[in-house]
Amino acid sequence: MNNIDIVPVQTKQQLKLFIQLPRLLYKGLSGYVPPLDWQESSLLDPKKSAFFRYGSAKYFIAYKNHQPVGRISAQIDPNALRQWKEPVGLFGALDTIDDLCVVKKLIDAATKWLKHNGMEKIRGPYTLNANSEIGIMITGQNALPTVAIPWHPTWLHHHIEAVGLEKAMDLLSYQMKFGPQAKQAHKIPAGLKMGCGKLGNITTRKLNTKEIARDGEILRQLYNDAWHDTWGFVPLTSIEMSVLIKDLKSMLKPDNFVLVEQNYIPVAVALVIPNIYDLIIDIGPDPSLLGYSKLIYRILRHQFHSARVILLGISGSIRDTALGALMPSLVISELFERGEVLPYKTIELGWILETNHGMRNLIERIVPEPNKIHRMYEMKI
Predict the structure, then answer these.
(1) Which of 269, 303, 360, 377 could be stapled to 165 by a disulfide with Cβ–Cβ 3.0 to 4.6 Å?
(2) CATH number for the domain including 90?
(3) InterPro entries per the record (predicted)?
């Protein structure tokens, strides 16, 4: 372990290496597809990431025999501290070679920084907060890569556990294929169709691209209302939503947004985002001018074939009612209807808590097993 050095990121060159390091470490590994550098920069660069408007972080790079072999972030999120009401610091951006000593030294560095700043527990990974990329991939390394879903090699979670961090929660993702078979598996009674009969006052609408900021705020409020009492929840801020809308605006079609209203009052919402990995596998993480031209053309032509539901929420005003119990089924049914218009062959439903048995039972009628599992860890420090 003596030939491993942990260096804090302080210069522009170190920050660039920190951002690009996973694709250098994981190049050639089965199932790994590097994300675009500019997307990673928007998450991690303090000048670009929304997190740094309210939170603080420290980055570390591990060197072994003078070669970069790993990275980690340690961060403090004031919103998480207020929500969780305990001094929990976060770690994230953990990527390394297959070396337990490297993982231990990186986690030790993050722990030391958090403890110095008054934290009593470490939890993660979060890159950089609870409303971004989270979890260590346990299974699914060779599944279809999906936007905002982190990829890790099979060895990493074993090393994390060997260091002493313990499982806090598993997050499940399900890949749902559009088509008659899946639609039949989710069939609901004919009398329970939104806009008809007993549900005559329940209507849906699409994204209003001319009022996208307004619809984004509706989405944010419903999401926060729906999940405020679930494990690990941290409110989605207006800043984060505005950045999300800005990043997605060119890729969203009206059908990507499902808003359910009761007497014209929003009661449920879902946002489906196209999977950028569909367009970049042959372009690479740092495209040339020609590569960017191809990417822009593909985005404008909406040449995606998969997507992910990133935000889904049911209003607290109906949560404990018969309508509230039925609403997740109605939203998924609406997604199937939209699937006949949108070009996606598959859609991924992700970040389902392993303890959310109601949602799991609903989804597993269509897809019996998750295609990816990510794990959250924590430890007293």
Answers:
(1) 377
(2) 3.40.630.30
(3) Acyl_CoA_acyltransferase (IPR016181), BcerS-like (IPR039968)
